[in-house]
Specification:
This protein is an alpha/beta fold and 180 residues long. The protein has a single domain, classed as Rossmann fold, CATH 3.40.50. It has 7 helices and 8 strands, in the order H-E-E-H-H-E-H-E-E-E-H-E-H-E-H. Strands 5-4-3-6-7-8 form a 6-stranded mixed sheet, with helices on both faces. Strands 1-2 form a two-stranded antiparallel sheet. The radius of gyration is 16 Å and the shape is globular. It is an enzyme of class 2 (transferase). Its cofactor is Mg(2+). Pathway: Pyrimidine metabolism; UMP biosynthesis via de novo pathway; UMP from orotate: step 1/2. Catalyzes the transfer of a ribosyl phosphate group from 5-phosphoribose 1-diphosphate to orotate, leading to the formation of orotidine monophosphate (OMP).
Amino acid sequence: MEERERLLELLRTRALRVGRITLSSGRVSDYYVDAREVVLHPEGAYLTGRLLLERIDPEAVAVAGMTLGADPIVAAIAVVGHLQGRDLSALIIRKEPKGHGTGKYVEGPTLPEGSKVAVVDDVVTTGSSLIKSIERLRGEGYRPVQVLAILDREEGGRERLEASGYSLNCLFTRGDLLAR
């Protein structure tokens, strides 16, 4: 089985929950995808890291995402990248600034100002987490160059990101996930 097809199968069997649920955006949906069920699984982490790494801009020197959803994705990409001879620093973006010390939003290796960073997330609904991640990276002096995710729920996030000047590059869409 092709790697992309296998990752989609893992999302369908391990992460997809059908039924009425309230999303973090406040919207009510008839399905939920808990991508952590896949990206914290050894095979799922590997496949996610590998497939997203293939899409990362060659000029990017780091990959970053909002905690907690993006943490395992960022780590998977960094590890798979290293194994393939492409070292990308891993950056984790806090929801709130650190309450002591430097008070930073972004954790990870300190990179030169203007460093190009790929921003990742697990599931995109409204795009709010990605936009917040972009803003926080800019605030730390980094240059977000692209936005990637595992799944686009096709509920306005892509359009909101495009209005902010970023195109969304996803492995899968709602249509892919729910097609049988």
